[in-house]
Write a structure and sequence with these properties.
This protein is of the alpha/beta class and 414 residues long. It folds into two domains: 199 residues, P-loop containing nucleotide triphosphate hydrolases (Rossmann fold); 175 residues, P-loop containing nucleotide triphosphate hydrolases (Rossmann fold, 3-Layer(aba) Sandwich). Helix content is 39%, strand content 17%. The chain is built from 17 helices and 15 strands. The strands form three sheets. It has a seven-stranded parallel sheet, sandwiched between helices. A hairpin with a 6-residue loop joins β14 and β15. The two termini are 35 Å apart.
Length: 414
């Protein structure tokens, strides 16, 4: 936590008091980095992990920059999932109330008429891209007054294929808007997008210190396809298991099937994926958070934005597609200095690809200790473990992102 107060950063008394009532008296590092620039009207690019306090990093100064007596629909926050949109509104509600600002969530899977009415009256709209376009087409939302635009978890929006709709939405906002861009990475396509949408942006990178990240034990377990379920059941029943377990699968149908199979084995679990209604997803997450069930089976998209305390184990029942997917999944455990376990089941034909992921994240020693045999793609026989370590460091994963050059690309006249 910072030695500065929110007042030191220039935050209004009304917002400071609202935060104090919630027991929030000192800014988190990402908030200390960002708040002053946002209050000053700067565009901001911020690389920061989930759970770092980034919602209030943009929410606090946004509330102070908006005028409750001014026009409606002057701020827009785009989020990739319904869960994240809902969490943002919950996190910002008290500070918005302190400034007499109306905030509304707009996402699919819920009544569009009710959301339409709330959006018409709102100063701040928090939306998933698809539902927002629905309301724009209905005439319930007009973006020409948007003075502050936030793209939260922009990397995941690209992963989910939202680039075309986000482009259409951004083009409708005021050309002289302030743009705040938050992402777990600012490299590659995400970096290009950030430069297109911002102008003269201040760039911040926040890396949680080791004591905030906690410690994760990484395990790679070789399994036969027919034995995966039995292996999972044994892991979930293992002695001394306390806390919550998040199990990742690749498909929506796979999540539902796995929940049914676990139930037949006497293990209660709930599934979260995109085919569930918003009400079903909220109920599933609530049961998981309240400890009514200790196992949540989720797809990558559904789990985006989940920030549940006490997740002690993350199990990759289906292997992640790449190293960024691995970091996103396993990062749901070992939060705020806690310890956690990340387990990945590895089928024989996946060993080469998982070995590459492990090497990329400097987990080659953990992978090698699993004894998994990797067939060389070049026909050179077999070797044990992941790719050859580049150095002797066998520590935990790092982000794996390279620093993005600070190129500037105007998004239009300012």
């Amino acid at each position: 936590m910072s030695t500065q107060s929110f007042a030191d950063l220039g935050v209004s008394t009304a917002v400071v008091n609202a935060l104090t009532e919630r027991g929030i008296e000192r800014p988190f590092p990402v908030q200390e980095l960002v708040v002053r620039d946002v209050l000053a009207g700067q565009d901001v690019l911020t690389k920061s992990p989930t759970g770092s306090g980034k919602t209030l990093a943009f929410g606090i100064p946004m509330a102070d920059r908006l005028d409750a007596n001014g026009p409606k629909q002057t701020a827009l926050i785009l989020a990739p999932t319904r869960e994240l949109a809902s969490q943002i509104v919950d996190e910002m509600y008290s500070i918005c109330h302190a400034k007499a600002l109306a905030i509304a969530a707009v996402y699919g899977g819920a009544g569009i008429e009710k959301q339409s009415k709330a959006a018409r009256k709102a100063h701040i709209i928090v939306a998933t891209p698809g539902r927002l376009e629905d309301l724009i087409q209905r005439g319930a939302v007009k973006l020409s007054n948007v003075q502050i635009l936030v793209l939260d978890e922009a990397d995941r929006m690209l992963d989910m294929g939202f680039r075309p709709v986000v482009d259409r939405i951004v083009r409708q906002t005021h050309p002289n808007r302030q743009t705040l861009f938050f992402s777990a990475t600012l490299d590659g396509e995400v970096g290009k997008l950030a430069n297109e949408y911002t102008s003269h942006a201040k760039r911040h990178e926040h890396h949680s210190p080791a004591e905030e990240r906690g410690y994760t034990e990484h395990r790679f377990i070789p399994v036969q396809h027919e034995a995966k379920l039995d292996t999972l059941v044994a892991d979930l029943r293992s002695s001394g298991r306390e806390g919550r377990t998040l199990v990742f699968v690749r498909t929506k149908r796979g999540a539902d099937r796995l929940v049914k199979k676990l139930e037949r084995s006497g293990i209660k679990s709930v599934a979260m994926h995109g085919n569930k209604s918003q009400n079903q997803r909220e109920k599933a997450l609530s049961r998981f958070e309240q400890g009514q069930v200790s196992t949540l089976v989720a797809t990558d998209v559904a789990a985006r934005g989940i920030d549940v305390e006490g997740i002690t184990h993350v199990i990759n029942f289906d292997a992640p597609e790449d190293h960024e997917g691995y970091v996103h999944r396993i990062g749901r455990t070992a939060r705020a200095g806690a310890k956690g376990v990340g387990i990945t089941y590895v089928l024989a034909d996946q060993a080469h690809d998982i070995g590459k992921i492990a090497s990329k994240l400097e987990l080659h020693e953990q992978f090698a200790s699993s004894g998994i045999a990797v067939k060389s793609r070049g026909g050179g026989g077999q070797r044990q473990g992941g790719q050859r370590p580049r150095n002797g460091n066998g520590g935990g994963p790092r982000n794996g992102n390279r620093n993005q050059n600070r190129n500037r690309n105007g998004r239009g006249r300012r």
